[in-house]
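Homework help board

Subject: predicted structure for assignment chain

Our instructor gave us this sequence and asked us to write out the predicted structure in token form, then describe one feature. I got the tokens but I'm not sure how to describe them. Can anyone check?
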Amino acid sequence: MRSNRRTWTVAALLAGALALTSTTMAQTSPPQGNAAPTADNAVLLTVFFKHDQSRPLNELNAQLDKQGYYKSFPPPGIEVVSWYVMMGIGQVITLRLPASRLREVNRIVEDTAWGPYRTEFYPTYDYKAVGMAQHDKATSN
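My token output:
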């Protein structure tokens, strides 16, 4: 009985140590540089850049220039899928990037866009092929 309890205790401690190690490694792993998005690692990221409407546009643009926004965003190797101005809101930008670079994009936005913009992020994935296949299957019957 005592040996069985010891075995379970050792197993639990080992599982905890492995979980802690994998979590720590996931949080401290460096970004993958300019890794290209592929079918198995790409995410779409839609970012709402909501203008600070209490300030004039030229003032917002001056702050963006001062903070290096247009120089840094989007980072090299990140595909811009769309970039629209939504009247009354601000800018809505959709990027395609490897999931490993999500943190990098977030930091650039935090460092260069906050102030003139309030931001909202919506990470998604490309579902078009799956959705169209389902549609084609449903309409072929």
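Reply (TA_rk): Your tokens look well-formed. For the description, you could write something like this. The longest strand covers residues 42-51. That's the kind of observation they're looking for.
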